Amino acid sequence: MGLSASLLVFALVIGPFAGWVAVGWVRMIRIAHGRRPTGRGLLAGPPLVFTAVGALAVPYPELLGNGKDIVQLTLGAQFGVATLVALLLLKPLATAGSLGSGAGGGLFTPTPATGALLGSLAGQGWTLLWPGPAAGFAIIGAAAVLAAAMQAPVAAVVLALELTRTLDALMVPLLLAVTGAVLVSRRCDTPSLYSVRLPAQ
């Protein structure tokens, strides 16, 4: 796959939007972490949240797990618009809710999963105006949100290129999208996703 003009322009447009999504994601995790229950609340919180997530997983089974399946399915353009919208809203809420209930869990995989959903959703609309590769839209979204949320643009780009092995086609679009996303997140003075879970000094 050669360098796509559609992906280049898409990357310029989606980068700032990915930055805003990352800002919201980091703030959501900060709030959830700050409200984690203690004492008896630890006994009630996880069952209540997991029951709610389980109920939502009946129509949207992709909510379960760490988000790896979501990334794979978006790369293959397996979701319709309605499902993408629902998962883009519900996956971050389910992850933050689970962490906020007092349960343990990781944040790395749900972050690019959220970005892949954003990229895939935006890409479906973009292709109506300017066709481009579906997988490229998802990868660009995933890398941009990951870079802005982690405050690690180089790591996000390297990871995306390593996983996809498409250096020639995606290098420039990835750099453009990641730059736009990180500039927005830093403009909002957003810390790294992992630093918001550190104990206060």
TrEMBL record:
Pfam families: Voltage_CLC. Keywords: Chloride, Chloride channel, Ion channel, Ion transport, Membrane, Transmembrane, Transmembrane helix, Transport. InterPro entries: Cl-channel_core, ClC, ClC-type_chloride_channel. The chain crosses the membrane at residues 6-29, 41-58, 70-90, 102-122, 134-160. Its main location: membrane. It is a multi-pass membrane protein. It is found in: Membrane. PANTHER family: CHLORIDE CHANNEL PROTEIN CLC-E (PTHR43427). This is Chloride channel protein. It comes from Streptomyces ramulosus.
